[in-house]
Amino acid sequence: MNDDQEYELYAKQMEEKYPKMFANPYGGFAVGTGWYPILESLCANIQSHIDWKEKQGKPIPQVVVAQIKEKFGGLRFYYDGGDDEIRGMVRMAEAWADSCCEKCCAPGKRRDGGWIRTLCDLHEDEYQEQRKQRM
Question: 63-80 pLDDT, tens per residue?
């Protein structure tokens, strides 16, 4: 499976699993596949929290995703709705991504050298090798 096919499958699965969160056009998942588990965990926790609050008779506004992207080597999750607990979940997921490789979710760190990215040592070595070949 190539990257495009993997992306399409992941986006479809997330949209089907969390239809309320991805009800509006949202710009896709502009992140590496290594962060997919972080996003899956985040969306599961958000929707579970919303559903639980509803059952408690204390409904909160449904989270609707506006944009998910990588920016300056970090995860950005933009949305409408939610409450303070969901804001905390989003901050936690963004912090989690700060130490996970964008490609494989292994421990990683922010790397400079043109485009800022968060990579493990293996993927940083691959990136530097590709960069040398382009020069």
Answer: 999 999 999 999 999 999
